[in-house]
Amino acid sequence: MLIAALALLGSAFTTARAVTVYGQIPLAQTIGANPSAGSAVPPTKTLAAYDKTVLNPPALPSPPPAAAYTLSLQKDAGAVNGLSIPHVGGSFWGFSVEMSVISQVLGKNSSLIQVPFLNLMANLQERAGSVVIRLGGNTQEFAAMVPSLPNGHTFAKADSGSTQTTKTPAVLYTVDMFYMAANISSMVNVGWFFGIPFNDSTNWRLTIAEQAQAIVGGHLLGLQAGNEPDFYQQFGRRVTYSPQMYTDEVQSLINTMNQNPLILNKNMLIGPSVATSGTWTPEQVWDTGFIDRFKDNLYALSVEHYPNNNCAAQFNTGQPIEVPQDVFPSYLTHTAAVNLVQPYIHSTDLAQAAGKPFIMFETNTASCGGFPGISDTYGAALWAIDYGFQMAYANFTHGLLHIGGQNVYYNPFTSPPTNQSSYNEWTAGAIYYSTIVVAEALGKTNTSRIIDLWGNAGSVYTPSYAIYENNVLSKVALFNFMDDKSGASNSQVTITVPAGAPSTVKVKYLSADTVSTKENIMWAGQTLGNQYTVDGRFRGSLNVTTINCDTTANTCVVPVNAPGFALVFFDTNAEPLSIGQATETFATTARTKFHNTVTFDPAALSTSNGHSGMSKDGFGSTSVGSISKATRRMTVSGVGVMLGSAILGGVWIVRGLLR
Ligand SMILES: *[C@@H]1O[C@H](CO)[C@@H](O)[C@H](O)[C@H]1NC(C)=O
Ligand SMILES: *[C@@H]1O[C@H](CO)[C@@H](O)[C@H](O)[C@H]1NC(C)=O
Ligand SMILES: *[C@@H]1O[C@H](CO)[C@@H](O)[C@H](O)[C@H]1NC(C)=O
Ligand SMILES: *[C@@H]1O[C@H](CO)[C@@H](O)[C@H](O)[C@H]1NC(C)=O
Ligand SMILES: *[C@@H]1O[C@H](CO)[C@@H](O)[C@H](O)[C@H]1NC(C)=O
Ligand SMILES: *[C@@H]1O[C@H](CO)[C@@H](O)[C@H](O)[C@H]1NC(C)=O
Ligand SMILES: *[C@@H]1O[C@H](CO)[C@@H](O)[C@H](O)[C@H]1NC(C)=O
Fold it and tell me: Which UniProt keywords apply (predicted)?
């Protein structure tokens, strides 16, 4: 979203919305002249993505919830009322990448793809089987494909001075954007969403649909028809606009697509993507007959929503500035997730009746960049796990966490602030861990069903969920949102399973010292590293806690720190229990900025967790320029990605990989 439009909005500007800080975000790092090329040291002015603000944890609730409480659970799903429908599963949380920052996140072009990004996706794929990514956002409306751009660039910006929203730079891209997506999907199982521009509904620009279908092929999942249309009038993109007018425009789009022989699949649209913070509710769109009318043309129904916005501080809108310290507590209770999801329960019912997925197409902690001291903390990670589970419980199919580049606080991951993007100098946002946790919790079987347990007398500080897979109790998720170093607020959760508790359960904890920290966040003892140290792989030894249960009383007692999160596995052979990441054996040596070398012990490859299917020969090491043909035989994994890659000038070159 754009500064110019914001200035126009003035006092009408009161709601949360999806905003990318245009003009402040380096469109493509490769274009922003950064004289310190080759150095990923923090820039002099700290960009939001690397902000160091640390807030005080919220005060403890008074009276406090009980420290010890019992959850009484059924073993068989058949005995449980209110379970969600089975989900696609672990790919629940995906990502939404603002078009203007694709080159920061995915890479410069189809032959220079960021390896940390691939590693981060590989972690998720290992747990979930696949990952979904949307390339779009506000910038999709004016984006345009051009025949070529200078210097091998796939992305650039141009002033769209001729448009109504004057100061909006249009994202320019070449056909290579689709090859990038296709190349990424050939290495990690990513399914893509693109957006059809809605800036001009008379002369539809459908190149993106034609090219995405032709090039991305089966990895293209859907095409968004309109992004937050409930803001089009307010943002000056339409003079007047109503849900009926939107529906009529979708009809016009479908008519145009039907006449276009280059668009082979006319039935993969996604809508209405209303922000719900604006003037429209989803119901107002449903009331136009949207679902019945377009059922055959739709891949999924969608909404977009952020719980709050930081627009006043980011853009001097004149509205009262939200003080992060005051807002922080609102993220650290179960009420946050419940309130975010409640307005959509009727809509997810309608989607279910129509047999369509329902997707939260863009979300995060707050629009206009998020909040310093909140959006990138362990507290936000707890919030995003609860929010993801709550959506899954309410029969959403996916949620997509927005990535806005280096000028926002909320990214799940961010590349270094130079165009040399060394692979081990990325920053992982705390909410990336949430995507990993939800991926493990919902898993790969396509049978996961989840229920909010409302345990501990319904305390909003200690929410809990049960997950059933193949119709049996498979996992329990336990939260403790309180921050209390004394230990007095730690939970002791007794899980009783009258039909018979197992002799042991295994627990993976997501831990950190405090809700306000951005550092040393650990999932089962492993971390991606702190700011500027991330290469997308987990480090440290996997630490899964075994808890002995009382098989006479049929109880298992699980401790959860304040703050803390525990994922309790009832099947002690469950696959995620052995998934960590390559540890020291995959040490990476950055020798110089321009000549990085990856070394690893081939013996470790065949024995390491989660990397089965690796062939044993020929993977001793890679060095610059060496691409082993043998890599073609590997299954896709984070290691595979590393193996088939070579670094040149700090940027990984990926080619000839896999399949
Ligand atoms: C990095 O940016 C500088 C300055 O704009 C440019 O000269 C250089 O070619 C860029 N390097 C890469 C790998 O894109
Ligand atoms: C829509 O966007 C395209 C690409 O930026 C631009 O060329 C065109 O003039 C815009 N049309 C309108 C009506 O704003
Ligand atoms: C990607 O950029 C590099 C460096 O500018 C260039 O050598 C290469 O040809 C480009 N690849 C594509 C597919 O454009
Ligand atoms: C990536 O895309 C380019 C087209 O730009 C293609 O030539 C190349 O073979 C692709 N690489 C992989 C690994 O798919
Ligand atoms: C999800 O769908 C199931 C099956 O239709 C239904 O029983 C359940 O109530 C729904 N969940 C919510 C929160 O509406
Ligand atoms: C789960 O669904 C996906 C997508 O439809 C499919 O590719 C995968 O094979 C399914 N997994 C299982 C275990 O059935
Ligand atoms: C493993 O995790 C448990 C539970 O958080 C902790 O008590 C223990 O110290 C950890 N062990 C190691 C070796 O880090």
Answer: Hydrolase, Membrane, Signal, Transmembrane, Transmembrane helix
Q: 175 in ligand 4 pocket by Cβ < 6 Å?
A: no
C-alpha distances out from residue 238 to 233, 254, 325, Å: 5, 20, 37
Residue 354 is assigned to a structural domain of this protein: no
Calculate the average pLDDT of the chain: 82
Tell me whether residue 131 is in a domain.
no
Residue 11 in any domain: the answer is yes
Question: Pick from 454, 485, 383, 534: which is nearest to 81 by CA?
Answer: 454
Split into its structural domains, the chain has a count of: 1
Residue 352 Cβ < 6 Å to ligand 5: yes
Q: Which residue has the CA at smallest separation from atom 1 of ligand 5?
A: 84
Q: How far is the CA of 455 from the centre of ligand 3 (A)?
A: 55
Pocket test for ligand 5, best of 80, 81, 85 (most atoms within 8 A of CB): 85
pLDDT digits (tens, 9 = 90+) for 136-188: 999 999 999 999 999 889 999 876 543 433 345 689 999 999 999 999 999 89
95 lines ligand 5 (CB under 6 A): no
Mutate to test the pocket of ligand 4, among 106, 108, 110 (most ligand atoms within 8 A of CB): 110
For a substitution probing ligand 5, which of 84, 346, 396, 451 has the most ligand atoms within 8 Å of its CB? 84
Q: Which residues line ligand 3 (CB under 6 A)?
A: 108-112, 151-152, 176
Q: How far is the CA of 629 from the centre of ligand 3 (A)?
A: 21
Asked if 157 and 120 count as a contact pair (C-beta separation under 8 A), the reply is no
DSSP 303-372: EE--S-B-HHHHH--SSPPPPHHHHGGGGSSHHHHHHHHGGGHHHHHHHHHHT--EEEEEE-S-BTT--T
Structure letter (DSSP) for residue 570: S
Q: Which atom of ligand 2 is nearest to the CA of 163?
A: 14
Contact 105, 117 (CB under 8 A): yes
**Strand ranges of the sheet holding 621-622, from the earlier edge strand across to the other edge:** 588-592, 595-599, 621-622
From CA 255, how far away is CA 251, in angstroms rounded?
6
* C-alpha of residue 152 to centroid of ligand 3, in Å: 4
Question: Ligand 4 pocket test: which of 148, 183, 219, 659 has the largest number of ligand atoms within 8 Å of its C-beta?
Answer: 183
pLDDT in the model for residue 87: 74
437-448 average pLDDT score: 96
Q: What is the pLDDT of residues 226-262, one digit of tens each?
A: 999 999 998 889 999 999 999 999 999 999 999 999 9
Task: Tell me whether residue 453 is in a domain.
Answer: no
Please give the Cα distance from 258 to 345 (Å, whole number): 33
Q: Find, among 614, 621, 635, the residue nearest to 586 by Cα.
A: 621
Instruction: Give residue for tokens 């997810």.
Output: 348
Burial of 195 per CB tally in 10 Å (0-12, 13-18, 19+): buried
State both tokens at 108.
């410069």
Predicted TM-score (pTM) of the model is: 0.85
Higher pLDDT, 317 or 363: 363
